[in-house]
Design goal:
Helices cover 35% and strands 19% of the residues. With 454 residues, it is an alpha/beta fold. It has three domains: 1-50, no CATH class; 80-284, P-loop containing nucleotide triphosphate hydrolases (Rossmann fold); 309-388, Arc Repressor Mutant, subunit A (Orthogonal Bundle). The strands form four sheets. Strands 5-4-6-7-3-8-9-10-11 form a nine-stranded mixed beta sheet, with helices on both faces. It has a three-stranded antiparallel beta sheet with strand order 12-14-13.
Length: 454
């Protein structure tokens, strides 16, 4: 059987092995003669499998599972870094417009997680070590803000909170730096969370890449690292200027950012007040009513936005109807409650159905204790509407204009001799008459001769 010729790759590999063997023999000779330092340091040759040996494929049993197997699997309960808002594992994107107060919330969360305190009013986060990347702040500002958040605290500030104002970008070693902090802290403590303020300081520049691809890649590494280390990573980001009905659409950038993270938190101002909209893979969607205390510089959750803000709007509507003491239009109630038309229509319908107010007529609502005057129909308009209808339905004759303004005033009907004086519903049709001063045709009232001839 003829011998198979070596391929170019095999020839190159053999030459490297022969060169390595020669170098090793030469170094052994130097060592035997008493020279401890070899002339050519030998580096191990990487083992390379022959080309004709197939690479073993992973066992499907290790990567796939059936639905029947999934049914019997057991998992530990879901843990929270901040109850029902931030999961203990994964990436959370916290967004708002600039100078809205998201950095105050992030700093307060860091302090609460390292000092066994509450944040957002009644929320107590998990306790452990926290890394805070305050990349837009200085040490002076960080000290002043902590003094504001801990006004009556006279003890030592938490040593479990590690703060830095400088960090490498993620693709330049920032991910490895977070991993190193985790390994170093794990030896003596319990690392639970990393807060990055802000994303633009650590992400890779977009360049000429598609926006979606660049945005998705900006957070993919953090998501993998959070799952690897089983920690929560909160990334602070901005919202765009253009408003949207859905707050998730106001996040600056493409859908690649919101698609790469596990949880999205958006802080925004609505007509009824400030809200915190939370959505995620493990978080139940909720819109919370929040308020900022300017004296303490801390945020607090008042409750669900539907309960807090709607209750305030209901109170404004009821108070407006009580003061009017008459059926009121929807437009007036919109102004009183500071609501748009769609929202107030839904709210008025629910309030009328629940008996909080009463529907007096189409587009008119009244207080539930209001009743029409005796002898009047229940469908009574508001005071301004009644005045307009009374003027339109009155039998008084319209006031005629003076002779000097007859050319520019609106036409007024003339009454022929012998006709009835009741002219409340009789308006003469205007006659198109040319004038000597202009080529246009203007509307003038008909003359008496024209009326007589007709």
């Amino acid at each position: 059987m003829p011998r198979r010729r070596d391929t170019p790759e095999e020839k190159k590999r053999k030459q490297e092995q022969e060169s390595w063997a020669a170098t090793q023999a030469r170094n052994d000779a130097y060592l035997r003669t008493g020279n401890i330092q070899p002339k050519d340091p030998v580096e191990p040759v990487p083992s390379v499998e022959p080309d004709d040996v197939p690479t073993p494929k992973p066992d499907p049993e290790d990567t796939f599972f059936t639905a029947e197997q999934l049914q019997t699997m057991t998992f530990p309960p879901l843990e929270w870094a901040l109850p029902q808002i931030i999961p203990a594992e994964g990436v959370t994107l916290l967004c708002s417009k600039p100078k809205f107060g998201k950095s105050w919330l992030a700093y307060d969360l860091c302090i609460a997680a390292t000092m066994d305190r509450f944040t957002l009013g009644t929320y107590k986060p998990a306790q452990g070590d926290v890394l805070y990347l305050a990349l837009e702040d200085s040490k002076r500002r960080l000290q002043r803000r902590m003094q504001k958040l801990l006004p009556a605290f006279t003890g030592t500030w938490p040593d479990k909170l590690t703060i830095t104002t400088r960090w490498r970008r993620l693709h330049e070693g920032g991910l490895d730096d977070i991993r190193a902090w985790y390994q170093r802290t794990k030896a003596t403590g319990k690392p639970i969370m990393v807060i990055i303020d802000v994303l633009a300081k650590v992400r890779r520049p977009t360049g000429n890449r598609p926006a979606y691809e660049a945005d998705y890649e900006a957070l993919t590494g953090l998501a993998q690292l959070a799952n690897e280390l089983s920690i929560a990573i909160v990334v602070i980001h901005h919202t765009r200027k253009m408003a949207a009905d859905d707050l998730m659409e106001t996040v600056s950038g493409s859908f690649g950012l919101t698609g790469a993270v596990d949880t999205i938190l958006v802080m925004a101002s609505r007509a009824s007040g400030s809200v915190l909209d939370a959505r995620g893979r493990d978080v139940e969607s909720a819109e919370l009513a929040i308020a900022f205390n300017k004296d303490a510089c801390r945020w607090s959750v008042l409750g669900t936005a539907a309960d807090i803000h709607v209750s305030a709007q209901r109170a404004k509507i009821i108070e407006a109807l009580r003061e009017a003491d008459a059926p009121t239009t929807v437009a007036a109630l919109m102004k009183a409650a500071a609501m748009n038309r769609n929202s107030i229509d839904l709210l008025l319908g629910r309030m009328a159905k629940g008996g909080d107010i009463q529907r007096a007529d189409k587009g008119l609502y009244a207080h539930r204790d209001w009743s029409p005057p005796p002898g009047k129909d229940r469908s009574v308009a508001s005071v301004s509407d009644r005045q307009i209808r009374r003027q339109m339905n009155s039998n008084t004759q319209p006031i005629e204009t003076s002779e000097n303004n007859s050319a520019t005033s609106p036409p007024v009907s003339s009454v022929s001799p012998g006709t009835s004086t009741d002219t409340s519903n009789r308006w003469s049709e205007p006659v198109i008459m040319p004038t000597d001063q202009t080529d246009r045709q203007i509307r003038t009232k008909p003359s008496e001769t024209t009326m007589a001839s007709s």
